[in-house]
Amino acid sequence: MVDGKFLAEDSTTPAGQHLATDLLDRCLKWSEIVLTRDVRQGKIDERFKQTYDRLCEVRNQLEKLSITQAWSLRETDLYDYQRRLDRIDESRINGNFEDRSGVKADLHTQRTLLYLIRRSYGYIYTLIISSEPVSEALLPVYNQLQTLRRCLVEVKRSGGVMSPRELYPYSMKLNSIDNMRIDGKFMVGSDFPEGQGSVNSLLAECFDLRLSVETEETDGSSF
């Protein structure tokens, strides 16, 4: 900045100065807030420690679900988490967290609690969008594929196999599941259960993992 103004490369004064300076002021103020928080070692106001712990618990559980069970979740499975968040979010007064005496939490605590709420809601919405319902009829197949995937990932992570024979059990099981399909679809009697996309995607991933491990074994034995 020169004399309080942002200049272009040709030394002219571009339009939108007030927007840029206002944004800079906001950033500087936030920096002061962060520095103040660091001085306080980021401690949460004890009056709101229980709310903080509850939000951390919800956030951590949703984070775990997003890693381990995203594909098998249904929207109803997330209802309890959403209601718990709603109750905490609705307890705010005019957007602020207040104690029983009506005293507001400090700014750091307000921001931290709000962040945890928004982060948890974000996990819920992501899980809803990314998870296709898998019907009860397809869950046995889906669960078998999840187990196969975990095993193949572990085999790959531990260095692969010494011989293609070690992959036979995985190949046989995958082929057995693949042969259950009719015209590329998993059928239960004459029904076409929900969750075809998730199950087919997981099956394809398992085949890819098996091929990857097999290729690594072949490449390794050629040296």
- Portion in strands: under 5%
The number of helical runs is: 7
Spatial order of the strands in the main sheet? 1-2
Order of helical and strand elements: HHHHHHEEH
Give the overall silhouette: extended
**Terminal residue distance:** 62 Å
The secondary structure category is: mainly alpha
Residue stretches low in confidence (pLDDT < 50, at least 5 long) are none
Mean pLDDT, to the nearest integer, reads 81
Largest beta sheet, briefly?
2 strands, antiparallel
Radius of gyration: 27 Å
Q: Helical residue percent?
A: 55-70%
**What is the β-strand count?**
2
Q: How would you describe this protein?
A:
The protein is mainly α and 223 residues long. Helices cover 61% and strands 2% of the residues. It has seven helices and two strands. It has helices at residues 17-39, 49-68, 79-90, 107-130, 139-157, 168-178, 196-221; strands at 181-182, 185-186. A hairpin with a 2-residue loop joins β1 and β2. The protein is extended and about 75 Å long. The mean pLDDT is 81.
Note the main attributes of this structure.
223 residues; mainly alpha; two-stranded antiparallel sheet; 61% helix
Topology, please?
Elements: H1 17-39, H2 49-68, H3 79-90, H4 107-130, H5 139-157, H6 168-178, E1 181-182, E2 185-186, H7 196-221
Antiparallel strand pairs: 1-2
Helix pairs in contact: 2-3, 2-4, 3-4, 5-6, 5-7, 6-7
